[in-house]
Protein backbone atom coordinates (compact mmCIF):
# COMPACT_ATOMS: atom_id res chain seq x y z
CA UNK A 1 0.00 0.00 0.00
CA UNK A 2 1.48 3.33 -1.00
CA UNK A 3 0.66 6.69 0.45
CA UNK A 4 -0.60 9.27 -1.97
CA UNK A 5 0.50 12.90 -1.83
CA UNK A 6 -1.95 14.65 0.42
CA UNK A 7 -2.42 18.35 0.88
CA UNK A 8 -4.63 20.95 2.43
CA UNK A 9 -5.35 24.20 0.70
CA UNK A 10 -7.28 27.17 1.94
CA UNK A 11 -7.81 30.41 0.11
CA UNK A 12 -9.97 33.40 1.01
CA UNK A 13 -10.31 36.72 -0.67
CA UNK A 14 -11.87 39.56 1.28
CA UNK A 15 -12.20 42.85 -0.63
CA UNK A 16 -8.68 44.22 -0.28
CA UNK A 17 -6.85 41.50 1.68
CA UNK A 18 -5.88 38.06 0.53
CA UNK A 19 -5.20 35.13 2.88
CA UNK A 20 -3.72 31.89 1.63
CA UNK A 21 -2.76 28.78 3.53
CA UNK A 22 -1.42 25.63 1.98
CA UNK A 23 0.28 22.59 3.46
CA UNK A 24 1.39 19.34 1.90
CA UNK A 25 2.67 16.18 3.50
CA UNK A 26 4.82 13.88 1.43
CA UNK A 27 6.47 10.81 2.88
CA UNK A 28 8.63 8.23 1.25
CA UNK A 29 7.25 4.81 0.47
CA UNK A 30 10.07 3.04 2.30
CA UNK A 31 9.40 4.80 5.59
CA UNK A 32 5.66 4.21 5.33
CA UNK A 33 5.95 0.54 4.46
CA UNK A 34 8.48 -0.20 7.20
CA UNK A 35 6.33 1.61 9.76
CA UNK A 36 3.20 -0.20 8.53
CA UNK A 37 4.80 -3.62 8.76
CA UNK A 38 6.20 -3.04 12.25
CA UNK A 39 2.91 -1.50 13.39
CA UNK A 40 0.83 -4.36 12.02
CA UNK A 41 3.10 -6.96 13.66
CA UNK A 42 2.89 -5.08 16.95
CA UNK A 43 -0.90 -4.70 16.84
CA UNK A 44 -1.40 -8.29 15.65
CA UNK A 45 0.63 -9.57 18.58
CA UNK A 46 -1.03 -7.38 21.22
CA UNK A 47 -4.62 -7.54 19.95
CA UNK A 48 -5.12 -11.21 19.11
CA UNK A 49 -4.56 -14.57 20.71
CA UNK A 50 -3.94 -15.22 24.40
CA UNK A 51 -1.71 -12.19 24.80
CA UNK A 52 -4.36 -9.95 23.27
CA UNK A 53 -7.04 -11.26 25.61
CA UNK A 54 -4.72 -10.82 28.61
CA UNK A 55 -3.94 -7.24 27.56
CA UNK A 56 -7.65 -6.43 27.21
CA UNK A 57 -8.46 -7.94 30.61
CA UNK A 58 -5.59 -6.13 32.33
CA UNK A 59 -6.50 -2.86 30.60
CA UNK A 60 -10.12 -3.22 31.65
CA UNK A 61 -9.16 -3.94 35.24
CA UNK A 62 -6.78 -0.96 35.32
CA UNK A 63 -9.51 1.37 34.01
CA UNK A 64 -12.04 -0.07 36.50
CA UNK A 65 -9.73 0.52 39.48
CA UNK A 66 -8.73 3.99 38.29
CA UNK A 67 -12.40 5.02 38.02
CA UNK A 68 -13.20 3.33 41.36
CA UNK A 69 -10.39 5.14 43.20
CA UNK A 70 -11.26 8.45 41.56
CA UNK A 71 -14.90 8.03 42.61
CA UNK A 72 -13.91 7.03 46.14
CA UNK A 73 -11.65 10.04 46.61
CA UNK A 74 -14.24 12.39 45.06
CA UNK A 75 -16.97 10.96 47.30
CA UNK A 76 -14.77 11.31 50.36
CA UNK A 77 -14.18 15.00 49.77
CA UNK A 78 -17.79 15.70 48.76
CA UNK A 79 -19.23 14.07 51.89
CA UNK A 80 -16.50 15.23 54.28
TrEMBL record:
Q: Name one GO molecular function term.
A: protein homodimerization activity
Start-end of Low complexity biased regions: 22-37
Would I find Transcription regulation among this entry's keywords? Answer: no
Transmembrane regions: 53-78
Query: Per the database entry, which stretches of residues form a coiled coil?
Result: none
Q: Basic and acidic residues bias: where? A: 12-21
| Assigned GO CC terms | cell surface; plasma membrane
Annotated region Disordered: where? 1-39
What keywords are annotated for this sequence in UniProt?
A: Membrane, Transmembrane, Transmembrane helix
Which Pfam families does the record associate with it? DUF4731
Q: Which domain of life is it from?
A: Eukaryota
Transferase as a keyword of this entry, yes or no, is no
Write down what this protein is called: Small integral membrane protein 1 (Vel blood group)
Organism of origin is: Rhinolophus ferrumequinum
Q: Which gene encodes it?
A: SMIM1
Amino acid sequence: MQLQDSGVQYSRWDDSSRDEVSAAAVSSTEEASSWESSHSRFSRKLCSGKLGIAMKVLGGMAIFWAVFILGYVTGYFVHK
